[in-house]
Amino acid sequence: MTASHSGHIVIIGAGAAGLMAARELGRAGKRVTILEARDRCGGRIYPLPAAEFGYPAEGGAEFVHGEAPVTRTLLREAGLSLSPLHGRRWSVKDGALSQSDSPPSHAGQLYQALAELEADLPIAEFLERHFAGHQYGELRRAITRMVEGYDAADPARASTFALRDEWMDRGPGTQGRIVGGYGALIDFLAAECRRLGALIHLSAVVNAIEESGGRAIAYCDGGGMHEGDAVILTVPLPVLAEIALPPAAREKAAACAQIGFGNVVKILLRFATKWWAEAGGRDLVDLSFLLSSATVPTWWTQHPAMDPVLTGWFAGPKTDTVAHFAEEELVGIGLASLAETFGMTLDELKTGLVAARAINWGNDPFARGAYSYATPKTREAQSVLGTPDGGCVYFSGEALYRGRDMGTVEAALASGLERARTILATGP
User: Fold this and answer.
1) Could you list the residue range(s) of the whole structural domain that residue 333 is in?
2) pLDDT tops 80 at residue 196
3) How many domains, in total, are found in the chain?
4) Do residues 211 and 218 make contact, with C-beta atoms less than 8 angstroms apart?
5) Are residues 163 and 219 in the same domain?
6) What whole-number distance in Å separates Cα of residue 188 and Cα of residue 19?
């Protein structure tokens, strides 16, 4: 490859999108500087110390969803493998455990109403129009739980068309985990970027970007500045609002208001044993996911791995109620939810507790939430943010991905790759 350093690109954010864009630009001979606010790469990919949980547990993104072609290609390049999820899903209702593979009540009517829908609208409005009767109460609750939990979305804003694509196309798709965790993939990408000459500056918090003479300047807290032919912003949407931008870029960034962004509280509990394997007199050795109506309604195991860790998932608008809770309080909520779900006492649970962490992504200053979701106006906003306009400022990240898996690591990687190729085709 012939190196031609005719352009210098400054990338804000060393998450999946930023690193992927940097590698692609570096391969084309561009000079790349990455400015990362954290003291590590990865962004919302957040590996926890293996010594704490017995394996590289994920404080952030954990699963590979669906086909994920960009992710799987990258895994092959990195020599990493994917472990498919196995096991059974269970639910708890009225204190009783049961398998939760059955479709929701009135599923046929739901699919018909979705198929006949001609104009997109928020899910809450769709349910009110088509399934307001008391006989549909279970269906409404099931859909709301999925939207708030799986998508971390507000039903009053979330797109019904997105739900239709998710349910009627092929569902959420197959899921798996990277052997060694997402952190191994980030380490590979960061090493690739450095091999290609990219400079990665950690603890570099960007507060403003200016355009001058056809070039872009990124200003950091503490007075640092980095000039380039273009800047790619890959920060989460809420953080974007905290960076001063040139007028044209700020006008484009206003479209972000039409893209949803949800929050997640993730709770990881390591126990001395897999005590849940025989909970309630049931054979739960192969338990994968457990759903209930507790405050923290979703839990999963590491099955088929033997690690005695339960991960709790509390997502969507309800996380606003714990916005000011300390980590210890969030762990307490998780333990109380588990005790309620399994009919145990807190003392029984705490006796076998080895390690605990709770990550409220809404309180993370460099994320302000977990991931994006589609509203009825999201596709239009993505088009505005992704269209080159001759300026020096570009946008990238999982929220700008136009495929069906926006909000995922695959979306971030694909968006970073697309933005780099846009610059190579039309930019400096």
Assistant:
1) 264-369
2) yes
3) 3
4) no
5) no
6) 10
Question: According to the model, what pLDDT value does residue 5 have?
Answer: 34
Residues 200-215: tens digit of each pLDDT: 999 999 999 999 888 9
φ/ψ (deg, to 5) at 180:
100, -10
Same domain, yes or no, for 272 and 358? yes
DSSP 175-190: EEEETT-HHHHHHHHH
Domain assignment present for 99: no
Furthest CA-CA distance within the chain: 72
Give me the DSSP letters along 282-295.
Answer: S--TTEEEEE-SSS
For residues 313 and 268, membership in a common domain is answered with yes
**pLDDT tens, 56-105?**
999 999 999 889 999 999 999 999 999 999 999 998 887 788 886 666 78
Cα separation, 418 vs 388, whole angstroms = 12
Quote the CA–CA distance of 184 and 409 in Å, as a whole number: 14
Which amino acid, residue 347?
D
Residues 204 and 328 in one domain: no
Indicate if 277 and 342 belong to the same structural domain. yes
pLDDT in the model for residue 100: 66
Report the CATH number at residue 342.
Answer: 3.90.660.10
User: Residues 82-97, buried b or exposed e (16+ Cβ, 10 A)?
Assistant: beeeebbebbbeeeeb
Name residue 259's beta-bridge partners.
none
Name the pairing type of β-strands 175-178 and 199-201: unpaired
Place of tokens 């939760």: 100
